[in-house]
Amino acid sequence: MIGRLLLYAFLLLATLFFLLPVYLVVLTALKEPAKITLDTVWQWPDPVYWESFRIAWEAFRPKFQNSLVLAVSATLLSAMVGALNGYVLAKWPFRGSNLLFALMLFGMFIPYQSILIPLFQFVKAIGLYGTLFGLILVHVVYGIPIVTLIFKNYYSEIPDELVEAARIDGAGFFGVFRHVILPLSAPAFVVVAIWQFTQIWNEFLFAVTLTRPESQPITVALAQLAGGEAVKWNLPMAGAILAALPTLLVYIFLGRYFLRGLLAGSVKG
Amino acid sequence: MRDRITAFLVLLPSLVAVAIFVYGFIGQNLWVSLTDWGKNPAQALALRPELRFVGLDNYRELFTGFVDMRFRQSAVNLIFFTLFFMAGSLGLGLLLAIALDRGPRGEGFFRTVFLFPMALSFVVTGTIWRWLLQPQGGVNVLPTLFGLPPLAFPWLTTRQQALVFDWNLLPFYTALVVGLVLLYVAWRAHREGERGRRFWSLLSGGVLLLWAFTLGRSTQLLPYPEPHGFSLALVGVILAAVWQMSGYTMALYLAGLRGIPVEVLEAAKVDGASEWQTYRHVILPLLAPITLSAMIVLGHIALKIFDLIFAMAGLDYAPTDVPAIYMYLLAFRGNQFAKGAAIGILLLLLVAVVVIPYLASQLRKEVRR
Predict the structure, then answer these.
(1) Mean pLDDT value across chain A
(2) Measured between CB atoms, which of A8, A20, A122 is closest to B104?
(3) Residues 349-368 of B with CB under 8 A from A
(4) For labelling, which of A190, A204, B132, B236 has a CA lying 20 to 30 Å from the CA of A83?
């Protein structure tokens, strides 16, 4: 009985630890800037000031759109690349393909600080510095190892007999892919899409190094807004909610797949 | 045959991209770290700067040069951040998992709550906790809601340090810690009866300890003592990082706990083990492999931590500095590309030390299967 009580007390405390920050963010975002004082931080706003969301939305909308374009297009591209790579490695292995795959996987463990300077020079040299397109390219390339891994593992489970049967029926490389592999791929695409979308949406290092203000994703804009001195705290808090919302929605509605991707790609750089 | 060629051609662009963006760039970064890029002001403006090969000078300066004291503090910060972040996330994650494994009502709700910070960006987490840790607000005034006095800890703004040591003793401490770990390995090998491993770890550990207590104590990296320690401003950063990552360790541990066969627990009960003894001698040892892989993942995150600190304290705040921040500051704000590249290579080496043994052991497991 006492054990049960302690258990619930602990869970309650833990819940407070995880949710109090959220509570504070929401109530700060709903306060009139003049009423945000340090000694009354925990008081619920009266009246609720929805205006800060409108202002934050106006300020963040271009960055939010950048993030959306970036995350969606990079995710789509890298899912396609990953599906094809995984298909080749799982169903059309050639001599040395396992070694090449292992060499490829190494790319997912490196800390990106160790390639950041050459990457910066390279993106600048090909004229993509400061563009969203450059950032998309970078995310697709550094996503190759993890997406290839997920698709290869998934496709290895598909029986080779299915591929063989289709080939006897006269299907070629792409024919097998379109008619046999692709119709079975939905779960892998969901895992990869969720993983890449959250990763790219939340990413900061590449974004802050390779973009100009007009191509900034929302993470960079938020970090710079909060970093400035003498900010009205309702704005960064409303911005934090905007920046968190897409990935939170993914987590809430697709949590099962989210966790699967998390466990698959946990050591990614 | 045509299909085989097609297959290879489909894979080729990815292979080329990885070859350039991973291997090529690491090579180029290594080369940059061996040059004087950033020493000569003329290089900053030139489109194709003329670089001179200087060997390991940049690395030497980072560890022993007069101007790079800030790098050394950032390295010390990284060590303490990694240790406390790992300990905090593993400990809290394990407690949460054990609590949820005991089947409380509303388990699904609690699990969702503990895991949701994982979906957030470190930038969002940093922004939130920066506000929570304001010295006169947030967490510090929380006790006043219950009529208690406010907390006085200034969190991110403190300049205090604990566990201060002289940088010159770093080789001594490093050798001491590695030597003791090797002795522990030897002791484990002794108990498991692996004589080869016992011999080699005993030998190398002994040599290291001998070196530490003879020559190690008198090595001088700097001509003067330079104190470094655990910067207490990091406590807030660690708190935020644990808030974000302990749900992840909870998920890992929970999966592990659910995977323990009921028969094993029954057997422990039949043998008369108390609940505490069951945890201590049966469950925790079974969770050890999970702890190891969680440590690898968390260590990997800790070593390259950048966005969280950027959002909480900015680039220019020395007390919360880590090498990734200092590297960015040097290269992209100070045009000191060579030194920045050197820090990048050091981080790569650190990560390799953590990840390669892990990958090797995973690979061995695959082969055994």
Answers:
(1) 90
(2) A8
(3) 351, 355, 358-359
(4) A204
Number of domains in chain B: 2
Are A192 and A78 in a shared domain?
yes
Domain CATH code at residue A175 = 1.10.3720.10
State how far residue A73 is from chain B, nearest Cα, in angstroms: 17
Mean pLDDT of the residues in chain B: 90
Same domain, A85 and A172: yes
For A111, the domain range is 56-264
B138 CB neighbours in chain A (<8 A) are 24, 38, 41
Structure tokens given for B203: 């030998």
What are the backbone angles phi and psi of residue A229, rounded to the nearest 5°? -80, 165
Would you call A104 an interface residue with chain B, using a CB distance cutoff of 8 Å?
yes
Q: What is the value of ipTM here, to two decimals?
A: 0.91
**CB-nearest partner of A41 from B18, B141, B332:** B141
Q: Is the Cβ of B306 closer than 8 Å to some Cβ of chain A? A: yes
Probe site for chain A from B2, B4, B18, B239 (most A CB atoms < 10 A): B18
| pLDDT value, residue A267 | 46
Are B45 and A135 spatial neighbours (Cβ–Cβ below 8 Å)? no
- Quick: pLDDT tens for B193-235: 888 888 999 999 999 999 988 888 888 888 888 899 999 999 9
- For residue B151, the model assigns a pLDDT of 87
Q: For residue range B19-45, what is the model confidence (pLDDT) as tens digits? A: 999 999 999 999 999 998 888 776 666
- The reply to whether B173 touches chain A by the CB within 8 Å rule is no
Both B153 and B86 in a single domain? yes
- Show the domain range for B366: 49-158+232-369
Residues A141, A24 share a domain: no
Contacts of B156 in chain A (CB under 8 A): none
Tell me whether B345 touches chain A (CB under 8 Å): yes
**What is the tens place of the pLDDT at every residue in A22-39?**
999 999 999 888 888 877
Does residue B212 sit in the same domain as residue B127? no
Do A130 and A240 sit in the same domain of this protein? yes
Nearest CA in chain B to A210: B332
Q: What angle do CA A118, B303, B197 make, to 5 degrees?
A: 115
In percent, the amount of chain B with pLDDT more than 70 equals: 97
